[in-house]
Structures are given as structure tokens and as C-alpha cells.
Amino acid sequence: MKFVLVILTVLTIVCSVHVSEELGYPGGGVKRESTDVWAQDVTKREMPGKEMSNNRKCRKRPVAKGNYPFSLSRESTLQDYLANNKYYVDSIRDEYSNKVFEVNAKGQTPHTLWIGCSDSRAGDSSLGTLPGEILTYRNIANVVNPHDISSQSIIEFAVNVVKVRKIIVCGHTMCGGPIGALSDKSISDVIDLWINPIRQVRAANVKVLDALKNDPVARADKLSELNVIASARAVMRHPSALNALRRGEIEVWGMIHNVSTGYLHEVKIPKDEFEDVFYVSQDGGAK
User: Fold this and answer.
1) Residue at 59 is within a domain
2) Which positions ≥6 away from 13 have C-beta within 8 Å?
């Protein structure tokens, strides 16, 4: 057993050095903790319930020329995208054999609905989950509007059809939606209309936001948090979600993704004092 662990350790070191050299760090000479999951010891990342493969390989992660550390760029070709997909799939298979795709081939059973912003920096990938775990809905500035059939449809589908247990509404720092809603300049007719609900959030919290007038970044980030609360509340007032909440079948959480660090933090959702107004019982009668 000790011999096997020694061999694994040596292979891990060789793999790490190889990856470092490919990224321009000769001999892995820069002392830093590896952020490449394929260069880390599998025994340190094994989690209960996740099948790990013993046939893991040291794969070189694709890096787009002139766009380090990203794997694709504006100049990438179709073949680059397909190669990136192959690396992604092979990496999952290295760690979990073919189990992930075998399970997904039988249908989806996501445990969580992620409602987030379309921003390229702030997706559900921040949760570190595998394909099949998260049902995803994204739009500009993670707006949930009761008059928008798209967001209302995904909530109903998530709650009533695939039976998620968690709904996460996630905004992020440096979000263009709140920044635009704090400005008196037009972005475009359609986008101005789309972010109008955020302007309404701004109007409802004028004093809080005006206190941050001298710090535009903090002000925009505060509006992002308030927008998360407003969207989460809209989720909780959706008939299907509200019924599920009262039955104890789902939880609704608010989060902010910090694009400077990658970390998520919770946004507390205050109790809705008008919950009873929006509750409609399943037999069609109001409570």
C-alpha cells in the first residue's frame, strides 16, 4: 500500500512539473499551490459517493495562444472548441470513469435551480458541480419578473417537473445591470426596458444607495445585492414555488459572486410580510 502511494505521489509531482513547464514555468520553479485539478493528488479530493477512476492521466489543459489562462479566444476555430470539449469530457472520465454520462443518459434529476446573470464571469460553474446537478437559467442581471414568461416557466418546470430542492438566485459584483440602472444614460431601448425592474429596486432603496454616492463601486454592488433580494422574493411569490415552500419541499437562497476572487457569499432574504397575499392554494381557492 505504501509503495502504491509513493508511486502515485511521484506521478503527481511529474505531472505537476509537466503542466508548469507547458505554462511557461520551467521545472515548475514557481512555488505555488496548484489550481489545476488534474495536477492534484486524487486521494486529497475524493468525496463520498463519487466514484474515482484509477486510470487517471496527466492531461495538458488547452490554453489559447495570447489569451492565458483561458482555453479559447476570439480567434479560436471550430476545431479548437471541439478539442476543448474533448478535453473536458476526457477529464471527467479520467476521474469518474463513464459514470457521470451513464447516469445522465437515463434522464436529468437536478437538485438545484440556478438563476444567475448572463455575465461570462459568474456562472454556476462556481459551484464546482458536474453535468446533471444544476438546472440553469440566466439572463442580464439575474432579473426575475412575474411578467416574464421565460423566468416563470423555468421556476414552474424546476419545482413541479424535475423537483429541485434548492433555488439559488445569484448576482455578482461589477454587474452591468445595476450599473446601468444607476445611470441616467440610455444603454439601448430593449436593455433599458429589461433593467427597468432594477431601477424600481433602486427607487425603493434610495436612502440606502444615496449613502454610498461617493463610492460608485460599493453603490453598484449594493444594488446588485438588493436586486438579488428582489428576484429571490419574486421567485418565492411564484405560485408553484410558494406552495412548495409552505410544504417544506424547497429552499430559496440568495448569493453574490465576487468576480475578483471567485467566491460566493450569502445574501440574506428577509421574510416576505406579504406572503399570504401571494399564496394561492392548489385547489384554486385563496387562503
Assistant:
1) yes
2) none
Q: 3-class SS at 126? A: helix
Give φ, ψ of 219 to 5 degrees: -65, -45
pLDDT score of 278 more than 70: yes
pLDDT reported for residue 57: 64
Distance CA 223, CA 194 (A): 16
Per-residue pLDDT tens digits for 33-87: 333 332 333 333 344 444 444 555 667 778 888 899 999 999 999 999 999 999 9
List, in sequence order, every beta strand (DSSP E) within the chain. 112-117, 134-139, 166-172, 251-257, 264-267
CATH of the domain at 128: 3.40.1050.10
| Bridge partners (DSSP) listed for residue 267 | 254
Q: Answer yes or no: are the C-beta atoms of 145 and 197 closer than 8 Å.
A: yes
pLDDT digits (tens, 9 = 90+) for 241-257: 999 999 999 999 999 99
Stretch 93-114: mean pLDDT: 97
CA dist 94 and 272 (Å) reads 46
**CA-wise closest residue to 197 among 242, 140, 153:** 140
Q: How far apart are CA 98 and CA 129, in angstroms?
A: 16
- CA pair distance 246, 279, nearest whole angstrom: 9
Whether residues 47 and 140 fall in one domain: no
